[in-house]
């Protein structure tokens, strides 16, 4: 096992450690806090379970825990209230108490769904996240947000429930499909756009594209993002202030997923990639950002093979606007996270619907290559 990076999320009595490195799953017991657990339930999905569940279960049993496995169908369509109730019913039938633990072994869907179940079962039991996707390792496993989707909007039903530990083994990312890995790169790109730290600028300016994310740099990049997330969560656990920064690109991105019925047309990262370009266009049109901001977003995101505009059969703005209005930052108005420039995020409220529609028209008419974006997005 190589060196392990440890990042603390400082939340008083709810503080915990995010461990990042290679070979961590094989040594899972060594990264868990000392608790008086008796039983554990490992929740995973049909993609991850056959690969890693046995190792996780074996490690937990080595601690003397009576451990059982729950495997659910993979995919965003599983992240719903009915499936969450199934998880809770499984916990009941397994005899779990508030002195036991859930282990979420999977990507963002497994983490969000299992976290939600952990938060409501007997008003809250311990959960450990073992994220297996890049998206989950750099973002969704940290910070305690849990949720399920409804047709009207993504993550509309949820809670805050912090884990007691996060164990991020970057070796597990090797089993991801190319599309799943690229999807996670959207969140990495987001952090590089939001941060004012030197690593963000260096990352954006690196011309090697996806090569910059291969071993041995992968664990380093994951750790950069985790430190950014931990800092924001520690300052704003309940997402009422600076944690809003993390929603950059998510207003349109979540709307694209919801309008598509979570049918796989967009992965989460693909939708957020498009949403970040849209946010950059809005920033330009408001006069907040420079006229090359959207173009520069496109170049960065396309270097990872991510989409920068909806496909030709893009949904109409009216359908998206209904979902965008469900943004959890909204007080009944149109609100978005925007950028003045890289490293300077800001919230803008009361945005004019006509402006947002015009920016969407600019988005869907923009070239698919960043090199030619200036004319369409920065007239």
UniProtKB/TrEMBL annotation:
This is 3-dehydroquinate synthase. Its cofactor is NAD(+); Co(2+); Zn(2+). NAD(+) binds at residues 108-112, 132-133, 145, 154. Zn(2+) binds at residues 187, 250, 268. GO terms for molecular function: 3-dehydroquinate synthase activity; metal ion binding; nucleotide binding. One of its GO terms (cellular component) is cytoplasm. Residues 71-182 form the 3-dehydroquinate synthase N-terminal domain. Its main location: cytoplasm. It comes from the Bacteria. Binds 1 divalent metal cation per subunit. Can use either Co(2+) or Zn(2+). Pfam families: DHQ_synthase (PF01761), DHQS_C (PF24621). It comes from Candidatus Anoxymicrobium japonicum. It is found in: Cytoplasm. It is an enzyme of class 4 (lyase). Pathway: Metabolic intermediate biosynthesis; chorismate biosynthesis; chorismate from D-erythrose 4-phosphate and phosphoenolpyruvate: step 2/7. Keywords: Amino-acid biosynthesis, Aromatic amino acid biosynthesis, Cobalt, Cytoplasm, Lyase, Metal-binding, NAD, Nucleotide-binding, Zinc. It catalyses: 7-phospho-2-dehydro-3-deoxy-D-arabino-heptonate = 3-dehydroquinate + phosphate. Belongs to the sugar phosphate cyclases superfamily. Dehydroquinate synthase family. Residues 184-330 form the 3-dehydroquinate synthase C-terminal domain. GO terms for biological process: amino acid biosynthetic process; aromatic amino acid family biosynthetic process; chorismate biosynthetic process. Catalyzes the conversion of 3-deoxy-D-arabino-heptulosonate 7-phosphate (DAHP) to dehydroquinate (DHQ).
């Amino acid at each position: 096992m190589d060196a392990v990076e440890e990042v603390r999320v400082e939340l008083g009595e709810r503080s915990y450690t995010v461990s990042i490195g290679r070979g961590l799953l094989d040594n899972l017991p060594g990264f868990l806090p000392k608790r008086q657990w008796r039983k554990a339930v490992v929740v995973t999905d049909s993609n991850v379970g056959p690969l890693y569940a046995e190792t996780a279960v074996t490690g937990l049993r080595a601690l003397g825990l009576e451990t059982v496995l729950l495997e659910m169908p993979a995919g965003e369509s599983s992240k719903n209230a009915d499936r969450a109730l199934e998880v809770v019913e499984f916990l009941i039938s397994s005899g779990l108490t508030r002195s036991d633990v859930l282990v979420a072994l999977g990507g963002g869907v497994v983490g969000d769904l299992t976290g939600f179940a952990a938060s409501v079962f007997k008003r809250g039991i311990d959960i450990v996240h073992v994220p297996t996707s890049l998206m989950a390792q750099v973002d969704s496993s940290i910070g305690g947000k849990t949720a399920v989707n409804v047709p009207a909007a993504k993550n509309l039903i949820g809670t805050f429930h912090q884990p007691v530990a996060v164990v991020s083994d970057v070796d597990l990312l090797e089993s991801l499909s190319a599309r799943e890995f690229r999807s996670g790169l959207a969140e990495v790109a987001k952090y590089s756009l939001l941060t004012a730290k030197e690593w963000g600028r260096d990352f954006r300016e690196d011309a090697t594209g996806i090569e910059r994310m291969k071993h041995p740099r992968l664990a380093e990049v994951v750790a950069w993002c985790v430190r950014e997330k931990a800092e924001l969560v520690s300052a704003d656990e309940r997402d009422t202030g600076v944690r809003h920064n993390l929603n950059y690109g998510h207003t349109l991105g979540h709307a694209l997923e919801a309008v598509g019925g979570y049918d796989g047309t967009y992965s989460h990262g693909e939708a957020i990639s498009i949403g970040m370009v849209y946010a950059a266009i809005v920033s330009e049109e408001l006069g907040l950002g420079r006229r090359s901001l959207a173009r520069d977003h496109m170049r960065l995101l396309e270097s990872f093979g991510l989409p920068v505009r909806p496909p030709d059969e893009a949904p109409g703005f009216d359908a998206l606007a209904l979902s965008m209005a469900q943004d959890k930052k909204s007080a009944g108005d149109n609100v978005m996270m925007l950028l003045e420039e890289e490293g300077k995020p800001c919230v803008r409220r009361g945005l004019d619907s006509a402006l947002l529609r015009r920016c969407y028209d600019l988005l869907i008419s923009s070239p698919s290559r960043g090199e030619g974006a200036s004319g369409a997005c920065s007239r």
